[in-house]
Structure formats: C-alpha cells, structure tokens
Amino acid sequence: MIDSCGRRINYMRISITDRCDLRCRYCMPEEGIEKVSMSRILTYEEILRICRAAVKIGITRFKITGGEPLVRKGCTGLVREMKKIAGVEQVTLTTNGQQLSGRIEELKEAGIDGINISMDSLREDRYSYITGGGELRKTLEAIDRSIASGISTRINCLLQKQFNEDETADFAAFAFDKGLDVRFIEIMPVGFGNPDEGLSNDDVLKKLKEKHPELEKDERLHGNGPAVYYRLPGTAGAIGLISAMHHSFCSSCNRIRLTSQGLLKPCLCYEDGIDLRPVLAEQESSEEMIKEALREAVMDKPDGHTFFDRAGVETKLMSQIGG
Ligand code: SAM
Ligand code: SF4
Description:
This protein is an alpha/beta fold. The protein has helices spanning 44-56, 75-84, 104-110, 124-131, 136-149, 168-178, 201-211, 277-281, 287-299, 318-321; strands at 11-15, 61-65, 90-95, 114-118, 153-158, 181-185, 216-218, 228-231, 238-242, 255-258, 263-265, 274-275.
C-alpha cells in the first residue's frame, strides 16, 4: 500500500510481549515494569487475524519483537502459523539471544526467514552491565548456532560514548570474521535512550575508515530496513549503519508497528495510534474492519520524526513498542 507521502508500506513489526528477561539500561528500568495482564495482550489468534488482513493490503513482511519475544510461550508456533498465511513473504525475529540457542532448530523448522540478535558489547563485564545481568556467552553461542543452521543472522549494536565506542573495530572484525551483518543503530530518545550519550554513525564510519581505508559502500540488498551498508572487498560480512537521528530515513520508511496491547503505530516517534482491540473484540468484526484500521494507520503516517524537538514524542518504553 502507498501512503500519503508516496511511500510503499509493506512491513510490520509486531511486538508479542512487553516482558523481557534483560534490563538494558536505555530500554527498561532496573526494577522492570508493571506486568500487563495477559488478558490485555493480543492472543496469537488475534495477531494472525491482523496478519491475514495486513497481507491483503500489501503488508507481507513481518518482524516479531518485544520485549523479548522468546519469553512468551508459543512464539515458534506463531512463526509457523504466520508462515502458512498465503501472501506472507517473510517472517523474522529480533531477540537478545539469551534463550535462543536451544530454540534455533524449532524456529528453523517453523520457517523463520531471519534472526536479528541485539548485542552491545563483546566483553562479558560490559555486556552484563548494559543488559542488567545478561550472559554474553549465551548470546555468542546462539549466534554461532544460528549461523550454523543457515538462518540469515544479523547483529544489532547500540554504540554509546564512554561505554562501548572503543569496540567499533572489534564489532567490524566480528562481522568480517563470522561473515554476517553487524548494524550500528543510533540511540533514539525513546524509553531511557539519550542521544547525547550515543554515537553518531558519521563518527562510526570515520573510525571504521581510519582502520579500514579500503571499506566500500555495499549496494547489495540486505533486508527490509533503512541501513546503509559497507564492506571490505573479499569478505562476506558487512557493516550496516542505521542513522535514525543524524540521517533521518523517514522518506523511505516502509513500516507500521503493532504493540502487544493492540495499538497500531504509524510511526515510532509519536505517541498516537489506532487501538485494534475494540475492532477485534466485536463479535461481528470482519477482516474488512481490520483492513480499514490498517489502511488508516498507513495513511496516518507522518512524513518524518521530530525526535530533535520532542513535540508529541512517544512516552512508552521501547520494550512496549518493540523497537
Ligand atoms: N528484546 C529484543 C532485542 O533486544 O532485540 C527485541 C526488542 S528491543 C526493544 C529491539 C531493539 O531496540 C534492540 O536492538 C534494542 O537495542 C533497540 N532499542 C531499545 N531502545 C532503544 C533506543 N532508545 N534507541 C535505539 N534503539 C533502541
Ligand atoms: Fe529487553 Fe530488548 Fe529492551 Fe534489552 S533492548 S531490555 S533485551 S527489550
């Protein structure tokens, strides 16, 4: 479907839970958040109804996210059922990787098309600090297993000044060594994210070019997202830069978001959205009504974010939205 700014919207991020087994400092408070009762969380059947309607308006690529999607029972079953929907082109997952290792085979069997794994440090102590107690070795093991299983595997990394900026080159080496994509994401002012503490991707690229003068722009298609990729000639892995703050890519935005509580969000930046729960709860609710709400969300997409002046900016946490 084409939105009012002429952008083709074909991708939806679906958060299936706002719970998480980690407490990344920029995302969730240490003490966690008040648990939302399961009765307020969309059931998998409701999510599938939304996906069936979405496909009919041209949204054919889906990312399952959270909170941590793997903490919700039955996540693999959802992947399997989504993959059965006629017209679904791609179902991928984003995870912190802590519980992924033992789930790779079932996810592969369910038909997952790709896994993004968030990892902000390659050093155990730092990883544990930033995630509020996560174990790096579990995520590293999951990465190796995911690669070995043949699933398309990517790493997402948030670089922050005075925390992990000195690991830029290590992450690049990790990408080239493992033959996978590592994407550096600029921190956004959502949740506890403070862009002043983040690194601009221009600076990241400068650092990388100092270390690897032969780095070249990689024009191959890497996924659904707005990352700009660079690679070293002769290596399989690539570095992706997702510069949400410093090079807004809103003009090519292709997505809408669905929170675990059923709010359809036209844009990550703003608070507002369309509550799908009343539509889903209606006895007589038809696929047409869901399609109508999805169309409205697409047409409500603003032309860009206002993260810099913070007017009407989202106050929910990233774990509640799905990132
Ligand atoms: N728990 C899963 C994970 O960590 O991949 C999925 C949900 S998490 C909210 C999705 C992504 O959002 C993660 O890569 C995380 O680093 C990113 N994220 C969280 N807060 C952010 C912020 N303020 N700015 C930019 N990215 C953020
Ligand atoms: Fe959990 Fe992901 Fe947020 Fe970290 S970024 S607290 S893993 S939802």
